[in-house]
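ok posting inputs for the S-adenosylmethionine job
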Amino acid sequence: MRNDVQDYYGKQLQSSDDLQTNACCDQEPPDHLKPLLAQLHDEVVTRYYGCGLVSPEHLDGMRILDLGSGSGRDVYLLSALVGEHGEVVGVDMTDEQLEVARRHQDYHREQFGHSTSNVRFLKGYIEELDTLDLQDGYFDIIISNCVINLSTDKAKVLADVKRLLKPGGEFYFSDVYADRRVPSALVNDPVLYGECLSGALYWNDFINLGKRSGFADPRLVESRRLTIENPAIEKKLGNIRFYSATYRLFNIDELEPACEDYGQAVIYKGTLENCPHAFKLDDHHIIETGKVFPVCGNTWLMLEKSRFAGHFEFIGNFDTHYGIFEDCGLNVPFVDNEDAGAASCC
Ligand SMILES: C[S@@+](CC[C@H](N)C(=O)[O-])C[C@H]1O[C@@H](n2cnc3c(N)ncnc32)[C@H](O)[C@@H]1O
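and the output
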């Protein structure tokens, strides 16, 4: 399958116009990124096959690794956002993609006014990151855009991500997910696989894999249904629904498997660049500036042990446990007496 994918991205596709579905297609970027995207080289942009936005908040000075960096669009965008004192490393297995990315390194250095390039591209497999010149615990953020679905050993990728991230760092990535396990006949179809569809994980298998890999509480940032837009391929896929989704997985060992209530709250100071009114941690935590915002222990840890800590006030501690944090979806599983009727004693 790896050879098929290399062939697909190296030889068959010359630009996003050659894609047969809309799975590897992104949406309109936010306004604050448009001027930077306009500075990227045309060839890099033409061979962009991402399915989401992998540009989280607070990037200045960060060290970032991009898994499956392709022609380098996200690497170069982030190279501007981390600044000259930050660093972005891209890994890809396909020579043709790496050639495009490397060809324009100097162009982007000049565009962003850097005296030396803060970017490097490595040839390699994302399942074999341990064979590359990458230091454990080095990266603040690891990103990936529409690539994990193409991997034949997703558990190994996540294990290496965990090892390469700093404590408090995060894996912030967009990928394709299915609403069910994809049958093997479809997985073995090179076009469906290359188009980032049939290698996609069933979303709940991904959540459980993330937990088994040491990311106890994966947070969904945003998602959208993929419409495919190719009748022949839609016919093959039948009733399977596909989604593009962006998750953030924090490398924080203290995270618990569920959201627990310790009576804590945070106040966002409104100080993150481009987020004066609110900070969006995930799709159900949009934390307005200045408001006392009750949080579970896990959300508290994601803010307090990450690069976001300086932008929040923290109220409370872990001294007293008040049970499950009900706003996060789980409830007490037992019935109360008033629901069950009168008890009969034995
Ligand atoms: C859908 S494209 C996305 C590229 C890039 N992230 C972007 O947004 O344009 C998939 C890329 O992942 C690379 N890739 C796929 N599987 C890989 C693997 N196992 N190891 C390294 N690179 C891989 C391909 O060579 C290709 O460049």
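notes: Residues 2-12 form the longest helix (11 residues). Residues 5, 9, 24, 48-50, 68-71, 73-74, 92-94, 97, 125-127, 145-147, 150-151, 196 surround S-adenosylmethionine (CB under 6 Å).
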